[in-house]
Amino acid sequence: MVIWVLALLPLHGLTVEQAFEKGNQAYVRGENALKDARKKSGPDKEFQIEAAEREFQNALASFQSCLEKAESAALHYNLGNSFFKLGLVGQAIYHFRRAQELDPASEEIRANLAFVRKAAGFPELQASLYDKTLGRRPVEFWMWMLAGGFWLGVTLLVFPRMYGFGGVVIPIVGCVVLLFSFVPLWAVLQADKFRNQAIVLDADTALLVSPTVDSATAAFLQAGEAVTIQPAKKQPNHFFVSSNDGEEGWVFSKQLGRIRE
Questions:
Q1: Which of 1, 3, 175, 190 has CA 20 to 30 A from 133's CA?
Q2: Helix residue ranges, H only, the chain
Q3: How does DSSP classify residue 235?
Q4: Which strands sit side by side in the sheet containing 256-258, from one edge to the other?
C-alpha cells in the first residue's frame, strides 16, 4: 500500500495529457522489460519480470489519475491493457467494454476484448446483426438522429398545412423521414439493453443470498463475467443481479463495473 501511494505522488499537478503520456511511457518500459525477461533465465529473468510489473503499476496509476478528470475510449483501452498485464482480467474486460461503449467502431478495441476474454476462458461472443451494423455507432449518435428525424418529419407534415402550402410532395417527404426515424429508434432500444449490464471485477465474487454482511453465499462469479442488474431491488451497497447461467443473488456494488454509465 505504501509503495502504491508513493507511486501516485509524482502525478500530483500533472495535466490529463501529461499523465496520459507518462502512463504510455511507463507501459512501453514495461513491455520492453518483458521482452528482456524472455531472453534471460534464473534471477535475471525474475528481476526483469518484477521491473515490468512495477512499470505496469506506474502506467495504471497514471491512467487512473486521468480517469478522475476525464474519460475517453483511448484511456479505457490503455487501462484495459495495463490491468491485463497485471493479471487482473475482470478489470481489463470491464475497461475494454467501456472503451467499446465509447468507440464501438474500433476494431482494435474489439480484438483486444476478444483476446482477453479467450485468455480468461470465456466463449467467443457471437455478433448480432445490430453489432455488425448500427452497433458500430455510439448510442448518442442514434439519439441525435432519432430526435432530428422525428422533428424534421413532423415539421414537413405540419407546417405546410399551417401556412397553406399546396402539393403533396413535402408531406410525402415528411412521412418518409418519419419512417426512417424508426431505424435510429431501433438502434437506441438495442443499445439500451446494456444499460443494466455490468462486469464482475474481482475473482471469486460471492453471489449472496441476502444484502447483508453475514449473508450465506449461493455461488461464486468469475472475474470478467457479465451480469444483469435488477435496478428495482438495489440496496445502498449491493446490487441484485442475474448471471447468464440463470443464477440470481446479491453482489457488493464495488465489485461490479457498469458498462453504461
A1: 175
A2: 2-8, 16-38, 42-67, 73-85, 89-102, 107-119, 129-132, 139-162, 169-180, 182-191
A3: B
A4: 217-221, 205-208, 248-252, 238-243, 226-229, 197-200, 256-258
Q: What is the pLDDT of residue 41?
A: 86
- Three-state secondary structure readout of 47-66: HHHHHHHHHHHHHHHHHHHH
Residue 104 has a CB neighbour count (10 Å cut-off) of 19
Closest alpha carbon to 23 in 71, 66, 74, 59: 59
Specify the pTM.
0.83
Task: Of 212, 192, 209, give the one whose Cα is nearest residue 249.
Answer: 209
Percent over 90 (pLDDT), the chain: 56
Instruction: Give the N- to C-terminal CA distance of the chain in Å, as an integer.
Output: 29
Assess whether pLDDT exceeds 50 at residue 118: yes
How many C-beta atoms lie closer than 10 Å to residue 155's C-beta? 13
Q: Which residues, in sequence order, are CB contacts of 199 under 8 Å at separation 6+? A: 90, 93, 94, 97, 224, 225, 226, 227, 256, 257, 259
Which three cell numbers mark 23? 502512463
